Amino acid sequence: MAELHAEPSPSLFPDMSTTIAEGKGRIRPRARLLKTIGAELISSEVVAVIELVRNSYDADATEVELVFERPETPSLATLEIRDNGHGMSREVLLGPWLEPATDWKSGKHDAPTSGEHSPAGRRRLGSKGVGRFAAQRLGSHLELRTRPTQSESELIALFDWTALERDQYLDQVRIPWREATAEHVDAHGTHLCISRLRDPWTPERFDKLKLGLSRLVSPTMREDFRITVVINGASDEVRPALDAEKAMYAVEGEVAPDGRCTIAYTDINGASETWERTVVWPPEVAAQCGPFRFRINAWDLDREPLQMFLKKTGSKLGLRDFRTIIRDHSGVSLYRDGFRILPYGEPDNDWLRLDRRRVNNPTMRLSNNQILGTIQLSADLNPELKDQTNREGLVTNDAYRHLQEVVLELLGYLEMRRFNARRAMDIDWQRRSSSLPELDTDAAHDQIETLIEGIQKSSGGASETRKVEALKQAVTDFRDSTADAVRHYASLAAVGQMSGLVFRQLRHPVRQIRSDLDLVREDLRSGVQDPEDLQDLLESVERSLRRLTEMEARMEKLDPLAVGRRGRRVSSLNLAEVLVEVIEPWLEEYDRHGVMLELKVAHKRTVRSNREVIHQVVSNLLDNALWAATQGETKTPRVTVELTADGFSVVDSGPGVPEGVGGAVFEPHFSTREDGHGLGLTLTRDLLKTVGGRIELTSSKPATFAVTLKS
Q1: Pairing state between β 638-644 and 596-600
Q2: Is residue 397 assigned to a domain?
Q3: pLDDT of 170 strictly over 90
Q4: What's the pLDDT tens digit per position in 297-330?
Q5: DSSP 103-149
Q6: Which residues pair with 250 in a beta bridge?
Q7: Which of 387, 514, 520, 479 is nearest to 689 (CA)?
Q8: Is the same domain home to 266 and 407?
Q9: CATH code at 340?
Q10: Which distant-in-sequence residues (6+ apart) come within 8 Å of 515 by Cβ?
Q11: How many Å separate Cα 347 from the centre of its chain?
């Protein structure tokens, strides 16, 4: 309400007009503001219970008991949350506890139970002064009983949250309380009894609650903090359902305040490795996530490797049960001072976007449901990672984005070693999971010919011999037609890839021709008579014709399929000429990215191959090399194509192929590019086989791919 003065005091406003009245107003929150903070801001009943359990931890409790009576009938149900913490004095209950957004835990008060650390030395989880109002989310009535340590009396307060819905101000709401002699001399702590629950508690909701509570406390936390759930008299102590130490693949370590990191890798095969890295670390303090400890566990969920894992670990679980447990616990969870920050690590919370990241590279990347990770933070050492007001997540600032970036970098180390470990396993699931089968018609043909020769030796008579010869010829024809079909598709792929390049190069001259022809049309319509104007028209037409000639020459490069079917077979080719045909359309694209592309011809080679296959192979390699060169740190990025004694090589100045993955670059779906599909080099390898060629990675740094072709 504004306070009006008959005689205005010195004004705070610019003197723009005559003042009629002046004063100062007050902000008075309505009582329903608490409903917004408690019942509406917290997303679910499970989150509300977890929030109240966190408050018990802040009060130095070692035991918390959740007692549900008749939870299936909300109007009759009760939920009691009992802890053995230090309790509250009358001053705390009537003061900070009833103050929304109090700074009692901020360290600005001298009372023994205030501050960022509890009397027992625990780093408090709450700081915003709103967590206790989570009780509203659970039921409409609350009875609070609390008794401080060494006190002979207890305090009782009654809360009717329906009063908050009345049209009154917050300071008009009255909370009845009384102090009485304690019934049990040794008992201390806080007891919340919530009645008239808002929702029924189904078995599915209890499962979510127990799962959430089992993951509430960090697996590495050594403090005594036990949680028990009692449902209609049946007691169940909450325990983790998954042994975090038994992982198929795992990395763990610690990131120091300056970004230095020690990493240890282990897997089910007995491999172990420890190394040091410096992860990406911005110079600005406000953009840094701060130091943390981590452990990331991963599992293959395919039948055969998972069966092998369960056998090695002696697990009594079946495939379905183990997959269910992994699914329920999957994700990378964040813990601060030993307690979990929701919702990170929930099965449906992919805060690192792992599933989207895996789409482009399913063989290399891990999905969210294959990972159980823990990131251990500290409120003191990670000050830029701030809670949202609803306590369900961190503020999305630069420090949070930096944390995402670092965790993904650490996960990449695990993925790389896991990929190599899987390739070393004696399991055939790898080939079955590939969507691009390896093409080896020559091997199949040789095997069939051997069988035919055996039949010939065992059979007699001219009739049988003719049948066997006919069969042999049919197999040969099938092999040739299969290889020809693959080369045909290769030519289509080559045209598609090169057309994208050439079409981008055609856009500018097409616009220039259109501009010139528009001017010519306007001049002709206006009836040009002046000889100089006619000369300008003639020059515009000639300029357009020259550009059309250039465009026609470029378009010719896009028609390798114009030749007949026989032209698509293997033939003698001047390798240097074919390389020039492919490289020319790429020159403008390379120039646009600031990368130099050069061709070195030290040998004149004639090869027996297929033009379209070479087109596709070179285009794939140039595409990869262009991306790699732009990732390097050299001031003059460069890609070199060089003729060799038995083919050609492609070398780029990029960062090279990561250590330990050189043997995997030709595997289907393997890629070191976030936007890569991991099929280019696989297709390149298989295409070369159809013409008797091969490709190898002869150097990881600089990345060098050598192609061998038949003479």
Answers
A1: parallel
A2: yes
A3: no
A4: 999 988 888 888 888 888 888 888 888 888 888 8
A5: -TTTT---STT-SSB-TT--B-S--SS-GGGGHHHHEEEEEEEEE-T
A6: 266, 297
A7: 479
A8: yes
A9: 3.30.230
A10: none
A11: 13
Residue 555, both tokens: 């378009």
| pLDDT tens-digit map of 590-614 | 988 899 999 998 777 899 988 888 8
Same domain, yes or no, for 67 and 88?
A: yes
**Burial classification of residue 478, based on how many CB atoms lie within 10 Å of its CB (0-12 exposed, 13-18 middle, 19 or more buried):** middle
Distance CA 252, CA 197 (A): 43
Lowest mean pLDDT of 138-147, 163-172, 261-270, 276-285, name the range.
163-172
Looking at per-residue pLDDT, the higher value among 374 and 215 belongs to: 374
Q: Tens digits of per-residue pLDDT, 19-48?
A: 777 777 777 777 666 666 655 667 788 888
Closest CA relative to residue 158, chosen from 171, 181, 141, 133? 141
| Bridge partners, 706 (sequence order) | 649, 696
Query: What is the DSSP annotation of 602-654?
Result: -S--EEEE-HHHHHHHHHHHHHHHHHHHHHS--SS-EEEEEEETTEEEEEE-S
Q: Give the residue with greater pLDDT, 564 vs 40.
A: 40
**163 CB burial (10 A radius; 0-12, 13-18, 19+):** middle
Residue 215 lies in a domain: yes
Number of domains in the chain: 3
Q: 70 by DSSP, 3-state: which?
A: coil
pLDDT at 534: 74
* 292 shares its domain with 401: yes
Q: Which domain holds residue 392?
A: 249-430
Let me know whether 305 and 232 are in one domain. no
Indicate whether 183 belongs to any domain: yes
Same domain, 320 and 382: yes
